[in-house]
Each structure stands twice: as structure tokens, then as C-alpha cells.
Amino acid sequence: MVKRTSFENADCPVARSLDALGDWWSLLIIRDAFLGLRRFSEFQKNLGLAKNILTVRLRALVDHGILTTAPASDGSAYQEYLLTPKGRGIFPVLVALRQWSEEFSGEPGGFATLLVDRGKGRPVRKLELRAHDGRLLHIGDTTLKPNPKLKRRQRVSA
Fold this sequence. Notes:
The protein has 158 residues and is mainly alpha-helical. It has helices at residues 13-21, 24-34, 40-47, 51-63, 85-88, 91-104, 148-157; strands at residues 67-71, 79-83. A two-stranded antiparallel sheet has the order 1-2. The chain is globular, with a radius of gyration of 19 Å.
């Protein structure tokens, strides 16, 4: 197996997030955790993933603080994998990926499931990027600039 390049200390937040999330299997494990799966056997059955690969992915998600382990809620000898606050923070990312796929997949009639507001039963609105004043932003409306907080920290330590 080829060793992946680590982006753990990269300056780019996108690269760092990909280092923590790993690959598509990790995102699918996280998706399943949002759907209520907690046990190794549940993830393995639902994903059809080889046990050795699942073991590595679960360990990495725990190491990155996305999942945590806890004794099984039914008192059995098994352990469960639970989303941490950091893991729950991935929810909008999964929604964005889902909405992107729904929009551009070309699937006639859409997919078998819809993401709906549990309380109202209505489909969730498309995620939007908004400015501080509420304006809808597109890629041409954004840019990157140096973080002034980081400059202050560097001056203090220098």
C-alpha cells in the first residue's frame, strides 16, 4: 500500500480537512454515523468494506477526534463509535456534497431519498454562501487575504 502524503501541517485549511477526513470510505463512515450506526459490524455490513480497511479508517477518525469510542449502550462487551462535536461539524459538508450530487448527477427523477426538515417534513433548502451583510456570494465575489490574527501572533513570538 502506498503511503499517503500528510497534510496535517499544511497552510491550506482544505488540505488539512482532507488529511483528517481521509478518503471516501471515511466520509461514508461519517455519513453512516449520522444515520445512527455505531458498531463496527453495522458499518461493515452497510458499507461492505473489508474489515482491515474499516479498522484503519475508524482508528484514523478516532485519532483525528471525529469519532470517539464508548462502551456499548446495551451493556455488551462491544464498543460503539460516536460522533464528537468535531464530527458533528462535518454535517454541513455532507449536505453540500449531497446537494452538489443531486444538482449535477443527471439522475432522472432524483435519488431514492430526500433530505427534509424533521419537524416540518419539507425539503432542506440549498446551502448558500452569504456575506456578513446577508448578500449571496459566488466565487467571483470572494478572495483570500492574509489573516491579521496570524500576523499578530507571529509578531508576538518573534
